[in-house]
Amino acid sequence: MSKRDKITQIKKEVENLKSSPLYKYRVQNNYKPVIGRGSLNADIMFIGEAPGKNEAETGKPFVGAAGKVLDQLLKIVDLDRTKVCISNIVMDRPPANRDPHPTEIKLYSPFVFRLIEIINPKVIATLGRISMREMFKYYEIENKLDTIGRIHGQIFETKSANPKIIPLYHPAAALYNRGLLETMKKDFTKIKSASS
Predict the structure, then answer these.
(1) CB count in 10 Å sphere of residue 58
(2) What's residue 89's pLDDT?
(3) Chain-centre distance for alpha carbon 100
(4) How many C-alpha atoms does 19 have within 13 Å on its Cβ side?
(5) Considering the entire predicted model, what is its pTM?
């Protein structure tokens, strides 16, 4: 089975995930699940938390206001969006942009871990505290977990050679606190070096 076929399989499974409490909300609003987008051979993968309204309407990750911040950060470090892969821990939009509930994270996270396995990136850059926590748990480096304010921009080795994990602030944070943008720019410069 090719990488594309495996991802198509994930997409079908998520589209038909009637056991999800977010499935009914998706259907009622004519939303789409947001599986991920980018290169199938990406060295760098960004994992966010959950799709927002723009993302659920288009089926594409990070296309709203936070996506514009992400694009700006990628440009600063000369990373082409088509050369990275972007996904979320939860692949359906929670109502009113609330944080995903633990049950939702438990239901959707296996899909993102399958996606990571298919892409096999050198670096996973987590966008926000929820994806940071889930990646640290999955790669069994929870003992290194701290608040995002303390560990953002640091490079964490996992037990295997790849991937390295770099926790980053969620791009939406810069929309509420413009002062964070400079910090985020510095953090993004570490992604490229970690992937080479």
Answers:
(1) 15
(2) 97
(3) 13
(4) 8
(5) 0.96
